[in-house]
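Human: Not sure, check this?
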Amino acid sequence: MLSNLYPFSRKKTQTNTQLMNNKFLLTASLIAGSLFSQAQQSKLAYAITGDGNNDYIWMNIRQVDLNTGEVVKTLFERSKTSFQITDVNSQSAKNQTSFANENIFTTPAYPTGTMVAAAAFDKRTNKLFFTPMRKNELRWLDLSAANETPTFYTLPFVNAGRTEDINDEAANITRMVIGADGNGYAMSNDGNHFYTFTTGKKTTIKELGNIIDAESNNGTSIHNKCSSWGGDMIADAFGKLYVISANHNVFLVDIDTRIATYKGNIQGLPAGFTTNAAAVNEEGEVVLASANLFDGYYKMKITDLKAVKMVGSNVKFNTSDFANANLLFQKEANSLLNSKVVPTASVPVDAKVFPNPVTNSSFNILFDNAKEGRYRIILSDLAGRNLLTKSVRLVKGTQIEKVNTNANMAKGVYFVKVIDDQNAIIINEKIVIQ
C-alpha cells in the first residue's frame, strides 16, 4: 500500500539496497584480495645469497618462494645494482660510485660488504634489517622506497656493550629475527651479546646481556663454537625465540630471562648440510637451507626436529640467511585468542595472585615463606608481549606486593610471571582482567 502511494520511496529503497550490495561486494572483494595478498606473502622469504650454485659470497638479497626455492625477485645484486646508503646519525649518503676504487668484498662501508649472515624482515614497516659480518652496525633496506634504487640505512651499535675486536668471529652477529612483540632481536656467534632494536621511524638499539645456558642442557651449551655458533633465529607467537645453530642444534630462548634451553639436534639432514637459513612457512613448519651445500630446501616441525627434503624444490642459490614475517605457532595463538582458552600452569603454593578476575586496575601477589631476594613481576598478553615489568625486594616471611595495571587495558586473559634473582620462574599464572 505504501509502496503504491510513494513510488519514489520504493525506487530510493531499491537504489539504497543496490548501493549497499555493491558496497558489500566491494568490501568482500577487498578483504579477499587482502587475504590473498597475505597468503602470497606468507609463502615468501628474503634470502641472502651468492651469485649462483656453489658461490659462497653472500652479498645478494633476493625474494624466494619457500615452497619451491624459486627466485621471485632480486632486490640487490653485488657489483650490479645501483643503490644509496645513508648513515642515520650523520645523514651522509653514498652511492655505488663512492666505491668505484674500493674492493666491495672487503670494505665494511658497502651495503653488504664483508658478507651477511643475519637478517630479519619487519612486515609492519616493510624493512629488511641485517648486519654485515665484521661490521658493528645494524642496517636496513627500505622496501617501501618510491624509487627503484635500493635505499639502505646504517646505524652503529655504539656503546652497546660490544668492546672486543669486531674482526673476532665470536662477535659477529649471525642470528636475527623480529619477535612477536614487534621488536628485532640479534645475537652474536658466541651468544655473549644479545641485542634488541626497535623498527619504527627512530631505530634504537639496546644490549640485553649474555645468553644463559639452562641447567637442563647437560653440557650442550649455546656458547660452544663447535656445536652452537652460526645458523639462524626464528620467533614464535608466544614471545619466545628459537636459535638453530649451523650444526643443527636447536635452543629455545626466553627473552626476559635470556635462558637458552636445549631442545635437541635436527635429524635427517645430509652430511655437510649446515643449517644457516631458517624461516617459518605458511603451514607453520621450519624451512631450512644451507650456505655451504647445494642440496635444495629441507623442512621440519619444530616439535619433532625431523627434517625431510622438499622434493622438486627448484633451488638455485646457496643461502646464508632467511627472513620473513611468519611466526611459529601462529595458528595455535589465534585459536587461544578466539576461544579464550589458556593452558593451565602449575603454581607454587607459596605464591598467589588475587583478586582474579581483576576488576579495579590492580592485583596482588602473596609471597608466603618466599626466600629473601629480588624478584621481577611480568604481566604479558597471550601473544607473549610484555606489557608491564616490576622489580620487587622481598624479605623473609609473608609479603603482599600490589601491581597496578593500565586502566585502559583491554579486557581479557593475561599471564603473570614472577622470576627470582637466579632467573628461575617461580610463578606462571593466568589472570582475567575485566
Notes: The first helix runs from residue 2 to 5.
